Structures are given as C-alpha cells and as structure tokens.
Amino acid sequence: RDLLHIRRQQLRLQQDHAPAEQVLMYQKGQIIGQGGCGAVFLGMNVTNGTLIAIKQVLGGKEHDVESLDREIQMLRELRHPHIVQYLGTNRTASSLTVLLEFVPGGSLASLLRKFGAFHECVIQVYLAQILRGLEYLHGFEVVHGDIKPENILVTSTGLIKVTDFGASFKLSSASSSSAQCQFMGTTLYMAPEAVRGRAKSST
C-alpha cells in the first residue's frame, strides 16, 4: 500500500507539471473514422506540418457532446507514452472538436482484420503496453470504461496508444454523472458485474 501511495503521489506530481494547453492552428482533411457520436478526420498542424487526428461532433445530441466533453476533461489531465496525446479543443455554436495525436497504424481491430490472429510474441508485446497504460490510469483512479480492440491504437513502430475516453470516470468522484458513466461502454467487452448493473471495479 505504501508503494502504491508513493506511485500515486509521483503521478500527481507529473500531472501538476503538465504543460499548459496551447491554441493549435490546423487544417481539416479527409475522414478517417466514423463513430456513434461523431467523425474523426485527418488534420494538419499548419505551423509545423505535423499530422493530427480531429474528432468532431457536429450539431450533436446532448449525450454525444457530454461524452466528448468527458473525454476532453480526462485527456487534458493525462500524459503517458501509452495514452493518446490530447492537443487541444475547438468549440463553436454548432460543433465541438478535440484535437489528438494521429496514430497512423490504426486500431487493433483494423490490424486483426488485415492480418488475422496475432502471433503470441506480438500479443505479449501489445498486452504489456496496454497494462502499463492502464496502470498509469489507475494511479489517477481513472477507469477507462471501454477497453476493446477498436480503442487501442498502434503506431508504425508497434507502440500502443489507449484512446477514446468517452466512457471514462474517476473512482473518487461521487457525482451522479460519474455514476451513470460506470454503465457505459460496449456490452461484449464489459465486466459481467457491469452488465448485470452492479458497481464496476477498476478493471
């Protein structure tokens, strides 16, 4: 317990010294993904040419906007090699946009469709990185809430990035909105107790 407490203190110290959010100038390109609450576009940082991902809800439903807002609040507090990097937000009267690190390799789901079942050594490499990302999140008492192949991205060098924090919540929060988030996610990947409607543990 003492070691866990020290680790959490170290993580919070890293969080306190996270760089301030900067305004990012970007150009939106072609669509690269479509989800239930919006679309993801390829973008370019017009100041340095870096490619980024642009996740956008256009005139969205209240639930969709709340989900993206929740993702923004979580991601702006997190900084880790295995968590997709948050770059900024653009909010207008008709849209809500979050700017994220672009991960060119795509998701584990897309790689499984392209290559079929992974070799055991690849599974070990990927799983170790996913667990390191989850360990970091749990150090902040953050539960992702929707871990599945579609929400695990892979860079061209095999680096894992956990993404899509729309269903995430903090265990330390007792708000009604956080309680509702505990029962979001994808049914086939949810813990049995969550599917049965009981409180979800940090898994």
From TrEMBL:
<dbReference type="Pfam" id="PF00069">
    <property type="entry name" value="Pkinase"/>
</dbReference>
<keyword id="KW-0808">Transferase</keyword>
<keyword id="KW-0067">ATP-binding</keyword>
<keyword id="KW-0723">Serine/threonine-protein kinase</keyword>
<dbReference type="GO" id="GO:0004674">
    <property type="term" value="F:protein serine/threonine kinase activity"/>
</dbReference>
<dbReference type="InterPro" id="IPR008271">
    <property type="entry name" value="Ser/Thr_kinase_AS"/>
</dbReference>
<dbReference type="GO" id="GO:0005524">
    <property type="term" value="F:ATP binding"/>
</dbReference>
<keyword id="KW-0418">Kinase</keyword>
<feature type="domain" description="Protein kinase">
    <location>
        <begin position="26"/>
        <end position="203"/>
    </location>
</feature>
<protein>
    <recommendedName>
        <fullName>Protein kinase domain-containing protein</fullName>
    </recommendedName>
</protein>
<dbReference type="InterPro" id="IPR011009">
    <property type="entry name" value="Kinase-like_dom_sf"/>
</dbReference>
<dbReference type="InterPro" id="IPR000719">
    <property type="entry name" value="Prot_kinase_dom"/>
</dbReference>
<keyword id="KW-0547">Nucleotide-binding</keyword>
